Amino acid sequence: VQLQASGGGLVQAGGSLRLSCAASGRTFSSYVMGWFRQAPGKKREFVAAISRSGGSTNYADYVKGRFTISRDNARNTVYLQMNGLRPDDTAVYYCAADPRVVPTSTLTYDYWGQGTQVTVSS
What we know:
mainly beta, seven-stranded mixed beta sheet, four-stranded antiparallel beta sheet, 48% strand, globular
């Protein structure tokens, strides 16, 4: 599956952005989808994941209550709504797909998109 992330940009602290990740292929609903991020000089880290049906989600503690992951299987798209953005949310955000069952936080997803830059100014 091929993934194309979009929606990044520059926003002031406290602002919002909505990231989208469009997937190719007709088996989108067979994949758990995840969002990860990587800040300069730091390791890639988990942000959120969603089950195949969208009925189960998983969030990193540092985004809980601020970010919401969702998916539209009819549109082959996963979203990340980011509210209350902070300067430490600045990173390149990546979407990923994996044919696993549980929306886990590990980095071992099979497919990765190219990333979209999110910059939060103070």
